[in-house]
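Figure S7 source data.
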Amino acid sequence: MKMLINGQWVAKPETIDVINPFDGTVIDTVPAGTTTDVKAAIETAVEGFEINRNLPVHKRITILKKACEIMENCYEELAKTIATEGSKTINEARKEVGRAINTMMISAEEARRICGETLPFDSAPGSENRVGYYYRFPIGIITAITPFNDPLNLVAHKLGPAIAGGNSVVLKPATVTPLSALKLAEILLEAGLPPKILSVVTGHGSEIGDALVSDKRVRMVSFTGGVDAGNQIMKKVGLKKVGMELGSNSPVIVMDDCNLENAVESCVSGAFWAVGQNCIGVQRIYIQEDIYEQFRDQFVTRTKKYKTGFQLDEDTDMGPMINEKEAIRVIEWVDDAVGKGAHLLTGGTRVGTLVQPTVFEKMPASAKLDCQEVFGPVVSLYPVKTLDEAIEKSNAVDYGLHGAIFTQDLNQAFYAIKKMDVGSVIVNDSTDYRVDLMPFGGVKNSGLGREGIKFSLQEMTEPKVVCFNL
Ligand code: NAP
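Tokens for the predicted NAP complex:
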């Protein structure tokens, strides 16, 4: 596919192969964009901003709704694109398409709710006879940078609210999964989006990243990805708004009064969804000691039933990791843990990019798997005596995106809600629970700001105050 700049589909002599991670076949190529392309895209976005800020809201709504209709019509094609360029099974990919349509639809709906409020100016002495209000205006050009693991929906989470709010966007999708993003751009143009409002530059973040984030004309950088890239961007960004949606190593607490079957089922799914390449994937499970063995045995039995293989086979439970380098890294972390005394209950092996779902117990605090984000299909089980111990251990990391607790006791649930240092506490589902309208984001190294359309729209628009001296 070509990249999109100034309403033109642009090819380049230098290209990047897009590879099916299961068998290494080249499924397509995209241009290797350069800093010159970034410059051209930002110049286009200057004009694009003028166009979108002047589009009446009802026109933006019509475009976004039309895009949803087109996405419905090519549902299966989008799912196949997600599954072929990425790691998801076809069933996981279909779910992502449904969510992306929902994200775009919520963007259309929220566009009509970008409101302000009146202000009581006369509450300040000397401000008598003033009447006024604030309402919200688009922020300007937004650079959006997205990761590989949800190549369609996380792009929709940037484009939907940015367009709804009246901005222009320069999007850089992950180099390994650019096709879903380019297809969404195609769909938006077909839906009637004036072309200059959106450019998509494909290319390596290490080469074009600085140009994308440091340009003074860009008013916001909306980034989703890892903490290392996030930190690099923060050093280059200068005075502009940033949204940082970063990683985690999410904790789940399982209390002895919970519905055990539900807890096991949710945690297995939450640990191995998208091969564990999931920012809210379950990585650490703290289980009250009197049900520990029961939980562990059921968890391992269920994990062993997982069928890994080709993503497009309907009965595959878990596809390949995104590339062999990542699969090798995960096995290195497994070896690091085993070398430090962790007890491997199942998995821990790989063939090419296929890593078996892996479960550990007795994970030492010195192992990377205990405290860093594995972003792979590896989960550790820990017995705990009390809820306080579980919370203390859950919080003892640098991340804080989602946390979860399984319990039937409201008091325990509310105690965890109060004490867990995370952006969301999920009760009786695993950390891998999210709907696209909720405020989504984390504390500590998990990020800055919140996504979830209504909340993205707050970030992507600015209040302007109007005051009449009567
Ligand atoms: P990544 O390596 O950080 O890459 C994310 C994006 O940033 C890619 O488009 C990448 O381009 C680009 N990039 C890399 N270095 C850059 C730089 N210096 N300047 C500008 N852009 C740069 O992350 P990933 O491996 O794709 O995704 C995995 C990470 O994303 C995990 O940590 C995961 O937890 C996190 N994530 C967070 C959320 C959330 O909402 N909180 C959701 C999903 C994923 P290239 O592809 O060209 O390298």
